[in-house]
Amino acid sequence: MNTAEITKKEKVISAAIELVVAKGFNKVSTAGISKIAGVATGTMFHHFNSKDDIIITAYKTVKRSFIAQTTSCQNENNVKEDLQSMWNNLIEWSLNHQDQFRYMQQFINSPYYSKEIMSQDDTWTSLLDWWKAAIKSGQIKDIPVEFLIKIFSTVLYSTIDFLIYHPDKKGEYLKYSFLMCWDMVGVAR
Protein backbone atom coordinates (compact mmCIF):
# COMPACT_ATOMS: atom_id res chain seq x y z
CA MET A 1 0.00 0.00 0.00
CA ASN A 2 1.43 3.41 -0.89
CA THR A 3 1.50 6.45 1.37
CA ALA A 4 -1.44 8.14 -0.39
CA GLU A 5 -3.68 5.13 0.30
CA ILE A 6 -2.70 5.05 3.95
CA THR A 7 -3.36 8.78 4.24
CA LYS A 8 -6.85 8.41 2.74
CA LYS A 9 -7.66 5.51 5.06
CA GLU A 10 -6.45 7.52 8.05
CA LYS A 11 -8.53 10.51 6.91
CA VAL A 12 -11.63 8.32 6.82
CA ILE A 13 -10.92 6.97 10.31
CA SER A 14 -10.27 10.47 11.65
CA ALA A 15 -13.48 11.80 10.08
CA ALA A 16 -15.50 8.90 11.49
CA ILE A 17 -14.14 9.57 14.98
CA GLU A 18 -14.90 13.28 14.71
CA LEU A 19 -18.44 12.73 13.47
CA VAL A 20 -19.34 9.95 15.91
CA VAL A 21 -18.13 12.02 18.88
CA ALA A 22 -20.16 15.00 17.66
CA LYS A 23 -23.35 13.20 16.53
CA GLY A 24 -23.39 9.61 17.77
CA PHE A 25 -23.21 6.42 15.73
CA ASN A 26 -26.76 6.48 14.39
CA LYS A 27 -26.56 9.99 12.95
CA VAL A 28 -23.33 9.40 11.01
CA SER A 29 -23.53 8.36 7.37
CA THR A 30 -20.86 7.12 5.01
CA ALA A 31 -21.58 10.18 2.84
CA GLY A 32 -20.87 12.42 5.84
CA ILE A 33 -17.65 10.58 6.64
CA SER A 34 -16.58 10.81 3.00
CA LYS A 35 -17.31 14.55 2.91
CA ILE A 36 -15.44 15.37 6.14
CA ALA A 37 -12.52 13.15 5.12
CA GLY A 38 -12.30 14.80 1.71
CA VAL A 39 -12.23 11.35 0.13
CA ALA A 40 -14.50 10.13 -2.65
CA THR A 41 -17.08 7.59 -1.49
CA GLY A 42 -15.72 5.03 -3.98
CA THR A 43 -12.21 5.48 -2.58
CA MET A 44 -13.55 5.09 0.95
CA PHE A 45 -15.20 1.81 -0.01
CA HIS A 46 -11.94 0.66 -1.53
CA HIS A 47 -10.57 0.63 2.02
CA PHE A 48 -13.71 -0.32 3.98
CA ASN A 49 -16.61 -2.67 3.28
CA SER A 50 -19.27 -0.70 5.16
CA LYS A 51 -19.98 1.96 7.77
CA ASP A 52 -19.71 -0.78 10.42
CA ASP A 53 -16.25 -1.68 9.11
CA ILE A 54 -15.16 1.98 9.40
CA ILE A 55 -16.53 2.26 12.93
CA ILE A 56 -14.91 -0.97 14.13
CA THR A 57 -11.59 -0.19 12.44
CA ALA A 58 -11.61 3.28 14.02
CA TYR A 59 -12.16 1.69 17.45
CA LYS A 60 -9.32 -0.79 16.98
CA THR A 61 -7.03 2.02 15.80
CA VAL A 62 -7.85 4.17 18.83
CA LYS A 63 -7.55 1.24 21.20
CA ARG A 64 -4.12 0.30 19.81
CA SER A 65 -2.93 3.85 20.34
CA PHE A 66 -4.39 3.91 23.87
CA ILE A 67 -2.86 0.57 24.86
CA ALA A 68 0.51 1.58 23.38
CA GLN A 69 0.78 3.97 26.33
CA THR A 70 1.18 0.98 28.67
CA THR A 71 3.85 -1.05 26.90
CA SER A 72 6.88 0.85 28.16
CA CYS A 73 5.70 0.38 31.74
CA GLN A 74 5.32 -3.37 31.90
CA ASN A 75 7.87 -4.68 34.37
CA GLU A 76 6.59 -6.93 37.12
CA ASN A 77 9.40 -6.07 39.60
CA ASN A 78 7.63 -2.99 40.98
CA VAL A 79 4.00 -3.31 40.02
CA LYS A 80 2.84 -0.18 41.85
CA GLU A 81 5.35 2.02 40.01
CA ASP A 82 4.51 0.36 36.69
CA LEU A 83 0.79 0.78 37.24
CA GLN A 84 1.27 4.42 38.18
CA SER A 85 3.32 5.01 35.01
CA MET A 86 0.59 3.36 32.96
CA TRP A 87 -1.99 5.47 34.77
CA ASN A 88 -0.17 8.72 34.06
CA ASN A 89 0.57 7.80 30.43
CA LEU A 90 -3.04 6.78 29.73
CA ILE A 91 -4.37 9.99 31.27
CA GLU A 92 -1.89 12.17 29.36
CA TRP A 93 -2.73 10.45 26.08
CA SER A 94 -6.46 10.80 26.73
CA LEU A 95 -6.21 14.48 27.60
CA ASN A 96 -4.18 15.09 24.43
CA HIS A 97 -6.54 12.97 22.28
CA GLN A 98 -9.94 13.79 23.73
CA ASP A 99 -11.95 12.93 20.61
CA GLN A 100 -10.28 9.53 20.42
CA PHE A 101 -10.91 8.94 24.13
CA ARG A 102 -14.57 9.95 23.73
CA TYR A 103 -14.90 7.70 20.68
CA MET A 104 -13.53 4.74 22.61
CA GLN A 105 -16.00 5.41 25.43
CA GLN A 106 -18.94 5.67 23.03
CA PHE A 107 -17.89 2.47 21.26
CA ILE A 108 -17.54 0.49 24.50
CA ASN A 109 -21.08 1.50 25.44
CA SER A 110 -22.59 0.78 22.03
CA PRO A 111 -24.07 -2.27 20.32
CA TYR A 112 -20.88 -2.44 18.22
CA TYR A 113 -18.90 -3.60 21.24
CA SER A 114 -19.16 -7.36 21.58
CA LYS A 115 -17.23 -10.44 22.66
CA GLU A 116 -16.72 -11.22 18.98
CA ILE A 117 -15.01 -7.87 18.39
CA MET A 118 -12.89 -8.38 21.49
CA SER A 119 -11.89 -11.90 20.46
CA GLN A 120 -10.69 -10.68 17.06
CA ASP A 121 -8.35 -8.16 18.63
CA ASP A 122 -5.18 -9.12 20.49
CA THR A 123 -4.27 -5.54 21.45
CA TRP A 124 -4.89 -6.28 25.13
CA THR A 125 -2.82 -9.49 25.25
CA SER A 126 0.41 -8.02 26.63
CA LEU A 127 -1.48 -5.89 29.16
CA LEU A 128 -3.56 -8.87 30.25
CA ASP A 129 -0.34 -10.88 30.69
CA TRP A 130 1.09 -8.05 32.81
CA TRP A 131 -1.95 -8.13 35.12
CA LYS A 132 -1.74 -11.92 35.46
CA ALA A 133 1.99 -11.72 36.30
CA ALA A 134 1.28 -8.95 38.83
CA ILE A 135 -1.32 -11.17 40.53
CA LYS A 136 1.09 -14.10 40.52
CA SER A 137 3.83 -11.93 42.07
CA GLY A 138 1.48 -11.15 44.97
CA GLN A 139 1.49 -7.39 44.33
CA ILE A 140 -2.04 -7.25 42.91
CA LYS A 141 -5.07 -8.77 44.61
CA ASP A 142 -5.82 -12.33 43.58
CA ILE A 143 -9.27 -11.79 42.14
CA PRO A 144 -10.41 -12.40 38.54
CA VAL A 145 -8.27 -10.33 36.19
CA GLU A 146 -11.28 -9.16 34.18
CA PHE A 147 -12.73 -7.66 37.37
CA LEU A 148 -9.41 -5.99 38.28
CA ILE A 149 -9.14 -4.43 34.83
CA LYS A 150 -12.75 -3.24 35.07
CA ILE A 151 -12.04 -1.57 38.42
CA PHE A 152 -8.86 0.01 37.05
CA SER A 153 -10.61 1.19 33.89
CA THR A 154 -13.63 2.61 35.70
CA VAL A 155 -11.52 4.77 38.02
CA LEU A 156 -9.19 5.70 35.15
CA TYR A 157 -12.02 6.76 32.81
CA SER A 158 -13.72 8.70 35.62
CA THR A 159 -10.46 10.51 36.33
CA ILE A 160 -10.00 11.36 32.65
CA ASP A 161 -13.59 12.64 32.39
CA PHE A 162 -13.06 14.79 35.46
CA LEU A 163 -9.75 16.19 34.22
CA ILE A 164 -11.16 17.03 30.78
CA TYR A 165 -13.54 19.42 32.53
CA HIS A 166 -11.11 20.47 35.28
CA PRO A 167 -7.63 20.58 33.69
CA ASP A 168 -6.39 22.94 36.41
CA LYS A 169 -6.77 20.12 38.97
CA LYS A 170 -4.61 17.62 37.07
CA GLY A 171 -1.55 17.68 39.37
CA GLU A 172 -3.63 17.14 42.47
CA TYR A 173 -6.08 14.56 41.15
CA LEU A 174 -3.59 12.41 39.25
CA LYS A 175 -2.04 11.43 42.56
CA TYR A 176 -5.31 11.01 44.48
CA SER A 177 -7.05 9.04 41.80
CA PHE A 178 -4.14 6.65 41.38
CA LEU A 179 -3.95 6.06 45.13
CA MET A 180 -7.69 5.26 45.19
CA CYS A 181 -7.21 2.82 42.34
CA TRP A 182 -4.18 1.24 44.00
CA ASP A 183 -6.16 0.78 47.22
CA MET A 184 -8.73 -1.20 45.22
CA VAL A 185 -6.37 -3.44 43.22
CA GLY A 186 -3.01 -3.49 44.99
CA VAL A 187 -1.84 -5.58 47.88
CA ALA A 188 -0.84 -3.56 50.92
CA ARG A 189 2.72 -4.15 51.99
Automatic annotation (TrEMBL):
Keywords, in A-Z order: DNA-binding
Residues in HTH tetR-type domain copies: 6-66
- Which Pfam families does the protein's record reference? TetR_N
Q: Mind listing where the DNA-binding region sits, in residue ranges? A: 29-48
* Superkingdom: Bacteria
The record's InterPro entries line, in alphabetical order, gives: DNA-bd_HTH_TetR-type_CS (IPR023772), Homeodomain-like_sf (IPR009057), HTH-type_Tx_Regulator (IPR050624), HTH_TetR (IPR001647), Tet_transcr_reg_TetR-rel_C_sf (IPR036271)
Which PROSITE patterns would you find in this protein's record?
A: HTH_TETR_1 (PS01081), HTH_TETR_2 (PS50977)
Q: Which SUPFAM superfamilies match?
A: Homeodomain-like, Tetracyclin repressor-like, C-terminal domain
Where is the secretion signal located?
none
Gene Ontology terms for molecular function: DNA binding
- Presence of keyword DNA-binding: yes
List the protein's name.
Answer: HTH tetR-type domain-containing protein
Q: Which organism is it from?
A: Mucilaginibacter polytrichastri
